[in-house]
Amino acid sequence: MARFPARLALMGSAAVLAAGALMPAQLAGAQPSAAAAPKQWVALGDSYTAGVIPAAGDIFEVPRDGCERTDQSYPQVIDRDLGSLFELTNVGCGAATIENITDRAQEPIGRHLPPFSQDPDYPFPPVPPQSEAVGTGTDVITVGAGGNTLGFADILLQCLQLGSGSEGGQGTPCRDALADDIPSRLDKVSGDYDKMLTVLHEHAPHAKVLAVGYPTVIPEDTSKCRYNDLEQFGPITQGDLDWLRQDVLEPLNKAIEKSADAHDEARFVDLYASSGNHSVCDTGKWVDGIFTSVPDQAALVHPNAHGHRNAADHITSAMLDTISS
Q: How many other β-carbons are positioned within 10 Å of the β-carbon of residue 262?
């Protein structure tokens, strides 16, 4: 326990936030003729889209723009899987809020998290709102966002700090401190998401929008989670993990699904159910915890390559449905 406060202090600004799955059966019958033009696909989103952490692959863009898109993130996996069916434009960016997709430029941070890490390419120029990549010729839009608008990274950091002062992992210090603020945060997610979907439809009136939800991060049985294990949730108490799952993360997915259901051009893509047995605290995890198995390599609760593979399978199925619908 003695090392945790020092490691947490190093994280500082880092709070900004199984393999071999089968290809959906629709793909076999969906290959276009040689003369058919690919559908134009734009991938939008935050770090759960971009990849960001080393466990989600290598950064492939040169020069880097600080958004940390990795080659095992689901847009890149789908791009390799679908061949000539879709032409990808990937502008997902780590730490993006819904507003950064809709109408607000973003200043990417790359991996510049002093004093934890220094990024030699920092600072990065601002990137435009992601919606600017969408146009009248866009056929399909995938978007995964909401966690940074909710402020999940900040909530997580506060839970780490409050849990480290608990008596042996007992109690719900994080819930006691933050619960009253969660409904207003979720309301903002809903309002911003509705506006984003409206803007995307204005930019691309004929496009199908796939609103991608978040995977299971915390298991239903939180007794699986070992207190003070930094490859899981560190000193966050079991009671607070139950609260985070039930009152924060599951309602976040519900808010996204409700917004998608209210827009005719949008469809919700559920990743939660399929990842239920692959949380941070499960064997065969698809989401890494505070740190990965590599010593002192922060993951800050992000999907690894297995999680992105699962996302790719479900999003691929939804994308292929847009061709036949």
A: 12
What stretch of H or E contains 247? none
4-15+37-324 under CATH 3.40.50.1820, yes or no:
no
Mean pLDDT, to the nearest integer, of 146-164?
96
Q: φ, ψ for residue 236 (rounded to 5)?
A: -70, 130
Please report the DSSP string for 252-267 in residue order: HHHHHHHHHHTSTTEE
Q: Locate the domains of the chain by residue range.
A: 4-15+37-324
Q: 133 and 89 in contact (C-beta within 8 Å)?
A: yes
State the pLDDT confidence band at 89, using cuts at 50, 70 and 90.
very high
Strand partners, 117: 113
DSSP element (H, E) containing 44: strand 39-45
Assigned token pair, 311: 């996302």
- Strand, coil or helix: what is 77? helix
d(C-alpha 11, C-alpha 16), whole Å: 10
**pLDDT class of 292 with cuts at 50, 70, 90:** confident
Place of tokens 């080659």: 71
**Buried (b) or exposed (e) across 143-181, using 16+ Cβ within 10 A?**
bbbbbbbbbbbebbbbbbbbbbebeebebbbbbeebeee
CB 5 within 8 A of CB 298: no
pLDDT digit string (tens) for 161-184? 999 988 888 999 999 999 999 999
- pTM for the complete prediction? 0.90
Across 85-240, the runs of DSSP E, i.e. the strands, are: 86-90, 140-144, 208-212
**Coil, helix or strand at residue 133:** helix
Residue 142 makes CB contacts below 8 A (sequence gap 6+) with 41, 42, 43, 44, 45, 49, 75, 209, 210, 212, 269, 315, 319
